[in-house]
Amino acid sequence: MSDKQVDFELIEKFLKGDESAFNLLIKRHQEKIYMLSRRMLGNHLDADEVVQEVLLVLYKKLNTFKFESSFSTWLYRITMTRSINFINRRRLKNTLSIIELKKNKSEVSDPINKVEGKEQFELVERLLNKLPPKQREIFILKNFEELSYEEISNITGKSVGALKANYFHSVNKLKELMMKNEKK
Amino acid sequence: MKRNEKLIDFFEGNLSEPERVQLLEEIGANQKLKNEFEEYKRLYELVLKTRNLKSDQLYLDSILIQFRSKSEKSSFLLKPVFATGMLIIFAAISFLLYNTFIKNNNEMNELENFYEYSSFEINNFEDFEHLLNKEEIDELLYTELMGRDNSDNSLVKYLHLDDNYHFISEKDAEEIYQELLTKKIL
Questions:
Q1: Which residues contact B69 (CB under 8 A, 6 or more apart)?
Q2: CB 3.0–4.6 Å: which of A10, A124, B46, B123 could bond A25 by disulfide?
Q3: Residue in B with minimal Cα distance to A48
Q4: Complex ipTM, two decimals?
Q5: Lowest mean pLDDT, pick from A11-15, A136-140, B130-134
Q6: In degrees, to the nearest 5, what angle opens at C-alpha A147 toward C-alphas A144 and A152?
Q7: Which residues contact B147 (CB under 8 A, 6 or more apart)?
Q8: Over the stretch A151-183, which tens digit does the pLDDT of each residue have?
Q9: Which of residues 15-34 of A touch B (CB under 8 A)?
């Protein structure tokens, strides 16, 4: 049975009232949700908040899933939308300077701290954080999730041409940022 | 195609074999292009190294537990909050409805009294005094009317009630009109 079919079966079970099917579905995708939001947001605490938001949306809105596209596409769409919304909210909070306490707290319980390659991961996070959210989104989906332009187009609703242009901009900008960072 | 785009396509694996060979030859012959190629290479290598990085399993295991505990808390909290909210709304609506009803009722009584008394033809003061004794009439109005009556000994005359409720006589009206003309208001 393919991954897509397994997801569909779990969703059907959950919609019939099987709560454990929801747990299994989340366990299959939780790392993807976390890493996506983590790369989009650049720190653990914000990513964790978005993960919980995504789970809540899934729990409440799974009945609207139409079984036309794959569950992953739907999941990518929800996670990316929630992450971008969170970035906008955070920007507003930063303007009001009320997020400083949270940042210190994020260093304590960061699950990436225990992982090999943490420094490189953090460098990528810092660089990605300097990109506009929409460019960040396409760079992450293309490079870390290894999706094609057509798949990204299904998720974001943008034309392949627009995505390509955005992608080239993001790569060039990241390259420049990386060079600047190395010179420091 | 721009040179930058060609370099990106090289790392994305979008170039055909002849295009790849041609680009590599160009890079070999051009130092500036070679430097640029190296910069892109470093970026793609960094991405590749962090692509398959796994998050700590302990945290991943806690995601569902956190979610379930939050939903239980929220459903527990929702009930009293919801009930209190509903109670407040119900009390507010009841208060508003009660006030509106009582106010309307009072206004209706006053209106009924007014019609009752206004339809009564007053021929002499005794008739009017009999009406004034009714409890429904506002006490202040009663005092006012009685006070005025004492001053010139004729309430009916004061209010011109003998003139079918024309409170201003023709003479008074003429005087007012002349006064307005004199002061150039009209």
A1: none
A2: A10
A3: B63
A4: 0.86
A5: B130-134
A6: 115
A7: none
A8: 999 999 999 999 999 999 999 999 999 999 888
A9: 23, 26-27, 30-31, 34
